[in-house]
Amino acid sequence: MQFPDHFPLPLALALIALLGYLVGRISKASTVNEADRARREVRRAKAVAKELEIIAENVRKNLATHHLNVAKFKDRVSELGSQAKEAAWQDLCKEAEQILKPTLRLAEQIAQAYDEIRQQTNHLMTFTEVRTDPLTRVSNRRGLDDSLESMFALMDRYEQYFSLAIFDIDHFKQVNDKKGHLHGDRTLQAVARILDGATRDTDILARYGGEEFVIVMPHTTLENACLFAERVRTTVESSLGLTVSGGVAMALDGDNAQSLLSRADAALYSGKAAGRNRIYRHTGTEIEPISQHAAPVETAC
Q1: Where are the alpha helices (DSSP H) in 126-248?
Q2: pLDDT above 50: residue 30
Q3: Which of 34, 79, 86, 211 is the catalytic position?
Q4: E strand spans, the chain
Q5: According to CATH, what is the number of the domain 132-301?
Q6: Is pLDDT larger for residue 20 or for residue 264?
Q7: C-alpha distances out from residue 212 to 34, 170, 184, Å
């Protein structure tokens, strides 16, 4: 594989690794379940490749502008090499300052590109066996922890906001007790498929434990996350004939993975306490219902 001149080496290596990953994973798709999983991985990989392409293009444009400015500056230095005029040298110093500012911004952009590549790599790694729940074939708790670590790093450095939602299957114990654990396992798989079908390619879906699932949504406000969660709730109810409750929270300054999950979890259990089959959200200061099924509705999303 050949890349154009000045193509950043880390991006080239990331793309090569991406292709190798796809070849290795798709070759293992020998059953219907594995084929479904492979299609999901390809969809995720395409989204990652698109993100990498955008990163590479932004860096390429900024590098081109930077190289042009440096070339002009070198020409000016050559012109002034034989001159001793004070005013000319002062002008040169001003030009140097003008180049320095975008250079510093470019360095920050490159650092951000590295972080984003690492995040996209984590997205792909959520499908490796060690990060995959064996029953539902979505991410497990370890995959979720890795994803949240990357999301908080990007938020702290570049103010990239995100939200998450926790969903819990209502009365799941009764499903196991009345219909057996095999039926319960199939129920978990069915809910996982609906959640996976509802998410964007850049979202992270994980089985949080038992009958709970978490969806991490990059670049998503609390209001939009609430709309998504309500849509998921109604889809599960209409498709499977069972209900889920949900809790939604947006990452705020000072949050970490534990505090964010705790706030979403508190919102979830408020929905459970209010009668189940509803979505609540944690605003950072209070918990409130977001669905018309919850009364009274203090603030709708």
Answers
A1: 141-158, 172-179, 181-198, 222-240
A2: no
A3: 211
A4: 162-169, 204-209, 212-218, 244-250, 279-282, 287-289
A5: 3.30.70.270
A6: 264
A7: 23, 10, 13
Q: Which residues of 180-194 are buried (b: 16+ CB within 10 A; e: fewer)?
A: eeeebeebbeebbbb
Distance CA 221, CA 72 (A): 43
DSSP percent split of the chain into helix, strand, coil, nearest 5? 65, 10, 25
Find, among 44, 57, 62, 47, the residue nearest to 11 by Cα: 57
pLDDT of residue 293: 44
User: Over the stretch 172-203, which tens digit does the pLDDT of each residue have?
Assistant: 999 999 999 999 999 999 999 999 999 988 89
Given pLDDT bands bounded at 50, 70 and 90, which one contains residue 158? confident
Catalytic-residue membership of 53: no
Q: Write down the domain spans for the chain.
A: 1-125, 132-301
Separation of alpha carbons 269 and 265, rounded Å: 6
pLDDT tens digits, residue range 245-280? Answer: 999 999 999 999 999 999 999 999 999 999 999 999
244 CB-contact burial (10 Å; exposed 0-12 / middle 13-18 / buried 19+): buried
The residue assigned the tokens 């990498």 is 52
Residue 300: band (very low, low, confident or very high) from pLDDT cuts 50, 70, 90:
very low
Measured CA to CA, the distance from residue 256 to residue 162 in angstroms comes to 12
